Amino acid sequence: QGKAMALQPFAFQVAGHKHALLLDPAGRVLKPWNQTEWQFYQHAAAWPLLVAHIPHYHGLHNPAGEPNEETAHIVLDNALTGMASPAVLDIKMGTREHGDGCSAAKIAKQTAKCAATTSAALGLRCSGLRLYTPDGSVAMRGKQYGRDLTPDTFRACLREFFSPPAPTKIKNLSKADGLHPSPSVCTRRVQRVAATVRSIEAAVATLAGCRLWSSSLLIAYDASIPCACLAAPVADDAGGTLCGDDVTVRMIDFGQSKPPIALATEDLDDGYLFGARTLIAILDDLIAHATAK
Q1: Which residue from 77, 123, 185, 195 could staple onto 274, CB 3.0 to 4.6 Å apart?
Q2: Minimal CA–CA distance to 126: which of 155, 99, 97?
Q3: Distance, CA of 40 to CA of 209 (rounded, Å)
Q4: CB contact at 8 A, 50 and 44
């Protein structure tokens, strides 16, 4: 805090304000300061079940006096560290986006947006993604793509995101013997994501008074690691990283959220829980179809 340092743009941002995220020399993500989000990270430290699923908070980078949205940044772990070719999906969670204190006009706008998109039907909406197509090229899709999805095409979006590209086409992919046909989805990655979302759902179900309005799940994996789902079984001590081991899932974006309240009499965030349970069901369905005989 209070010290200038060399920053560079974060190359793999898929949602939010364009070029808003930066990287510091240590490879950590710097996000423009928002008082609500800053306070959320500070209070979240008291809730281990929540902390396990959010980026590690490293404090505030604030080279100029009182923190403000123009000069200050929240410093967080980079969830994509170590990934050579990250595939990234940002899913807006829940059925409500506006936080407390929003203007009537903003509440009306956000409510209408949720009602007109998969946020209402599924408790989920794609905010943006970065994936590798079958020929190994990168495809970027933004928030309008997500708003145009229906419940059925949202499911298709997830299936495409988890479909492994041709392993020889990915830049940075190391050469390996025994390349094999790819399944419709990489079941090991889907299983890992489903397990983590189950853990998140169980955690949120214990957080009385917590509101995760307009927050997202960041889901990522390293597309440079070939899908091994149809390969011969691999011994646990074979070495190297397997598909599934490369997955990361983080709860992010708390600019409209409220941390849990100790001994709160308030109920749970039903909109978020609805979205988490819907996502688990979709992921389970992907696995079932991919492994059906």
Answers
A1: 123
A2: 155
A3: 13
A4: yes
